[in-house]
């Protein structure tokens, strides 16, 4: 709780509620900080907080952790790897994400993170593309797993970064940075009627170094699969690659370099944009397209032109 030390709080549990009471008077400004910081389901009044566990218990019962078995780990670079799993999860929609977890040494607390699927929902095995974070608790544990090891995965998947949420348009633009290429791989491998709605699909993958284009062979295979409907373009920002554009996505869009290279124009009448990855890229690109193209954020209740998903 912001502004309080543990010794300044009385904590108790009563009738499935966690009750937190402050022992000292706080300024109104701290009230606002607390309300902003805490989950919306927590009630704040007179320095007394209550949190009802019922919905958390219900969520766990509806979406429990289940065991997943590691089939193999593919290490692409010192920091990038893919983990292949076998687990009886519920059917998911291409573009959705799951949660993986490993118990800490005392086996009492799970370290968990959200990751998107690379594989199509129709695939028998699961594939997750992960970046190893320096000092990251879970990513380093996952990186060191071996074939036959076990971990936890959520039974049901999450998210609305799926084609069913995308309105009809002529050109679907998919922008990704780093490991955020994963949901697009899942979507494009699955295919189906939702893909057929679009005349053209453009997949843009931006990385720092060319050895991080680990799924480029798959992207090229998908180009053949879609027989001209799918166009791909890679971007490498920190070294020269003759087959990739240099720079960053916002700069390349601002100067129409991507549109000129692909041979298609982005406009609000015939295009929809999907942005996934680095939050800075997502925000900058959205603001740029909003300013230059008058494109707006797409919401479930208010349709627009840009669908976004931050990757951390």
Assembly status: single chain
- Ends distance: 23 Å
Report the order of strands and helices. EEHEEHEEEEEHEEHHEHEEHHEHE
The biggest beta sheet is recorded as: 6 strands, antiparallel
What's the CATH architecture of the largest domain?
Answer: 3-Layer(aba) Sandwich
Compute the number of structural domains: 3
Instruction: Give the % helix.
Output: 10-25%
Assigned CATH class of the largest domain: Alpha Beta
Helical region count?
Answer: 9
CATH superfamily of the largest domain: Nucleotide-binding domain of ferredoxin-NADP reductase (FNR) module
Spatial ordering of strands, largest sheet: 8-7-10-5-6-9
Structural class: alpha/beta
DSSP E strands, number: 16
Overall 3D form: globular
Low-confidence stretches: 25-30, 33-47
Percent of residues in beta strands?
Answer: 25-35%
What value does the average pLDDT take?
88
Radius of gyration: 22 Å
- CATH topology heading of the largest domain: Rossmann fold
């Amino acid at each position: 709780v912001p502004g309080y030390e543990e010794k300044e709080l009385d904590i108790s549990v009563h009738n499935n509620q966690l009750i937190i009471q402050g022992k000292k008077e706080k300024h109104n400004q701290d009230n606002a900080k607390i309300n902003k910081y805490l989950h919306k389901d927590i009630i704040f009044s007179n320095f007394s907080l209550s949190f009802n566990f019922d919905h958390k218990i219900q969520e766990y019962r509806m979406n429990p952790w289940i065991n997943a078995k590691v089939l193999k780990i593919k290490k692409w670079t010192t920091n990038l790897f893919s983990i292949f799993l076998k687990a009886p999860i519920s059917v998911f929609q291409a573009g959705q994400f799951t949660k993986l977890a490993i118990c800490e040494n005392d086996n009492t607390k799970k370290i968990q993170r959200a990751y998107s699927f690379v594989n199509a929902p129709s695939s028998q095995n699961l594939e997750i593309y992960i970046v190893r974070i320096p000092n990251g608790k879970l990513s380093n544990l996952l990186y060191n797993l071996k074939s036959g090891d076990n971990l936890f995965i959520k039974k049901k998947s999450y998210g609305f970064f799926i084609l069913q949420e995308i309105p009809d348009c002529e050109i679907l633009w998919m922008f990704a940075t780093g490991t955020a290429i994963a949901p697009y791989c899942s979507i494009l491998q699955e295919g189906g009627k939702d893909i057929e709605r679009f005349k053209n699909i453009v997949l843009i993958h931006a990385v720092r170094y060319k050895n991080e284009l680990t799924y480029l062979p798959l992207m090229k295979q998908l180009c053949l699969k879609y027989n001209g409907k799918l166009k791909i373009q890679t971007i490498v920002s920190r070294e020269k690659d003759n087959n990739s554009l240099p720079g960053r996505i916002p700069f390349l869009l601002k100067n129409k370099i991507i549109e000129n290279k692909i041979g298609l124009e982005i406009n609000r009448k015939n295009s929809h944009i999907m942005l996934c990855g680095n939050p800075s890229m997502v925000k900058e690109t959205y603001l740029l397209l909003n300013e230059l193209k008058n494109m707006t954020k797409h919401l479930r209740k208010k349709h627009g032109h840009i669908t976004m998903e931050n990757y951390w």
